[in-house]
Amino acid sequence: MRITDRVFGVLLLILAVTYGYEATKFPVPFGGQESVGPETFPILLSIILAIGSLYMIVKPDEDAKWPAVSMLLELGVVCLVLVLFAFGLEHVGFVLSATPAVAFLCWRMGATPVKSLLTGGITAVVIYVLFTQVLELALPSGILGL
Amino acid sequence: MGTIELLMQGFAVALSPESIMFALIGAILGTLIGALPGLGPANGVAILIPLAFSLGLSPTSSLILLTSVYAGAMYGGRISSILLNIPGDEPAMMTCLDGYPMALKGKAAEALATSAIASFIGSFIATIGLVILAPILAKFALKFGPAEYFALFALAFATLGGITGKNQFKTLIAAALGLMIATVGIDISSGVQRFTYNSLHLFEGIDFLIAIVGLFAISELFFFLEQHAGDGLKKVALNKLKLTAKDILFVMPASLRGALLGFVSGVLPGAGASLGSFVSYTLEKKVSDKGTFGKGDPRGVAAPEAGNNGAASGALVPMLTLGVPGSGTTAVLLAMLISLNVNPGPMLFQQSPDLVWGVIAALFVGNLVLLLLNIPMVGVFVKLLSIPPKYLMPIVTLIASVGIFSITGSAIDLYFMVGFGIMGYVLRKVEIPLVPVILGMLLGPEMEKNLRHALVLSDGDWTVLWSSGLSIGLWAVAAAGLILPMVFGSILRGKMKRSKDGLVD
């Protein structure tokens, strides 16, 4: 099967066309139209991307091994955890958001729950102290308010 | 001022106690990063840039720190090649061929020491080459006009896949994607907003550091999770080192030959470190093999290691003089220079000679530090290698996030980082290379500026891009860089694979 490259080729082609189309609609810069403007380079790029994606559609490579749906879901959850960590960083502070995030990642990579939590907690505190005290870099302390 | 005087001034900078301290820290961190499976030099330097940046180090100190990390990572890569038979990055592949068999024979410590010495020779000779060649090339590059620069950037992309590149069209796609990301934001010369969709955060464009960390480090995390590689791998035990002067003399010719070949292939566009170590190994095998190569011949360790490190320093020649990196790691080094507001190119040698020569001197100092550090301390690094990735990768991810967060102190950058991580994962699955994406983001603004300059001067006449002899030459090399791999690429890759497979059975 050589379906992956075809699908991505089509997606990239759509991107190329949309990107190129958007570029043609840039407002005319102050001072009037010139021979080269802000749209020249993007249009050139969209042509290059279109050529590349057409090649992918016409002559696709062998398919890569995609993981099972359950693994893709798990990777989705990992992304969510990373996003939650970023969100929590601003709202509950560094230590409280980094601990569960690191613990979750360790656990998913095969560590036992207890060791994961320990790693998460210790890492979060050590990095917090190291960065705020030694390296003098502000990390949000959040609701712990240390 | 002559080159020698400038270099001496560089040494005055590099030998100050502060610089030596940074070189030492960088060397240790770099070796660790290079040795840890799944990190690799490009990744490591990328994670450390925002940190060095946010610590408010002076440009010279940051440069010394990060060049030592770069040099150290090259050293560290061989530890996993020799002990685990897993190359830390592609150029380290050839070191596995004789390094791992040596380790199996109970000579792991000798293999590591031999490769440390060969690495030192490789870097040392190539850095001397850099000192000689860089000013000449910089002077020559002053002749370049906007059209020539545009052609040069095109050449950089065309040859980035290297002679061993797999699918040239995918390199092209990757480059286009990177350049596209670079166009997001307010256009510098006209003030028009491009692809910002009125989001204030996009006005200044997307920081390439976020892209680098996302594309490399976060996607690596996904791959580790997918492959359940959390437990790490079995490695060969380390023995007590018995290395005599005779052993060192034995590998000396191999190291010298490897260093020279590596340097040449590092300087040439499109060849890179992979080819450097490959050519060095094959030549050494031709010259001195009596049936011992592939079974643990120390010369088979020395040659590719010297070649690999020679190429790494050689790649700095086009990077510093033309602003065009030849490999993934040098691309990241370019990112470092740009984020420190240093624009590599011929002018750099005239405008801030102290900085350039400081870096070159730092390379010498860093390599010496590494050699002195590596032979006695290799045991410590090996211990650290045995930290299972299941603890290490989450910690690295956290440190990378802290670095990104510290750039602007905004969580939005972290969302972007995760987004780039997903993009990196998908691109790697579809086998679209990541390095051209990064290079596109780095070179995009300069490339567009030169295109527009050239076209404005010619009043919109596109033929100006190939009207001088120099630009025609550059386009010809670019075309060759795109077309030759299609012809020879599969043959060369087959050869590299065969010599590696031959070892397994």
UniProtKB/TrEMBL annotation, chain A:
Q: Mind listing the UniProt keywords for this protein, alphabetically? A: Membrane, Transmembrane, Transmembrane helix
Q: Where is the DUF1468 domain?
A: 7-140
User: How is this protein named in the record?
Assistant: Tripartite tricarboxylate transporter TctB family protein
Could you tell me which InterPro entries the record lists for this protein? DUF1468
State the superkingdom: Bacteria
Q: Which residues cross the membrane?
A: 40-58, 70-87, 93-110, 117-139
Organism annotation: Marinomonas aquimarina
UniProtKB/TrEMBL annotation, chain B:
Q: Which residues cross the membrane?
A: 20-39, 45-71, 111-137, 149-165, 172-193, 205-225, 322-343, 355-375, 395-418, 425-444, 464-488
Q: Which domain of life is it from?
A: Bacteria
**One Pfam family cited in the UniProt record for this chain:** TctA
Cited InterPro entries: DUF112_TM
Which keywords does the record carry? Membrane, Transmembrane, Transmembrane helix
Q: Does the keyword Membrane apply?
A: yes
Could you tell me which residue ranges the DUF112 domain spans? Answer: 20-439
Fetch the PANTHER family from UniProt.
Answer: TRICARBOXYLIC TRANSPORT PROTEIN
Q: What is this protein called?
A: Tripartite tricarboxylate transporter TctA family protein
